[in-house]
Amino acid sequence: xxxxxxxxxxxxxxxxxxxxxxxxxxxxxxxxxxxxxxxxxxxxxxxxxxxxxxxxxxxxxxxxxxxxxxxxxxxxxxxxxxxxxxxxxxxxxxxxxxxxxxxxxxxxxxxxxxxxxxxxxxxxxxxxxxxxxxxxxxxxxxxxxxxxxxxxxxxxxxxxxxxxxxxxxxxxxxxxxxxxxxxxxxxxxxxxxxxxxxxxxxxxxxxxxxxxxxxxxxxxxxxxxxxxxxxxxxxxxxxxxxxxxxxxxxxxxxxxxxxxxxxxxxxxxxxxxxxxxxxxxx
Length: 282
Hints:
The chain is an all-alpha fold. Helices cover 70% and strands 0% of the residues.
């Protein structure tokens, strides 16, 4: 039984609304700033309502960039970020699910040793191994390339662990039935395990897409050509100019555009994301 306490109901709603306001207010101010002129943004007080330059600012950053000589149009950086995020997400899922399949369903010497070796890499984030990784990428000639942006980031111990735990929950009777029917290991993988893993794949795709989209340090290190700049590093570069005052209206328009793709992915895949996390916990 749930007690009906109007005061607690109102209080809980107020707390939720307060948290929502705290989170949403910076996003709102970013959007408002992206609709005004530079002169307006340098005045005090800063306006709290949208201005008349929304289409002008967004069109300029999409087609011309930041307005400086040699600046990269945001459309190009968004494309680079999209390619990188999709490559990282798909690569992580592909490698992790096949690794987990081999660890669970094949018996070979050192099987658990390899699993724990993969799991230990959680203690070595990209920032720790970035120097040797850069050396390997440079020696392979993958600087200033999509392969250099994607391949060093596609290994994922977390995804391997989650897929392993899910495969361990699959009934042994299902495996035996597939074996009796003459299904090969890969046929069992494609026709049974992969469809059963759809929700887990969707949940991991959302997480890994955002991970790849938000990458800053690695793209900054290995890209020197503007044609391979990602949108996150472009926003950071333009915010840290030293020779002039940043054009805050254009910078905020770039930030809003950089925020849009991950938000759309979360919104459109929210149901699959939640189901994937719940089923993984079970």
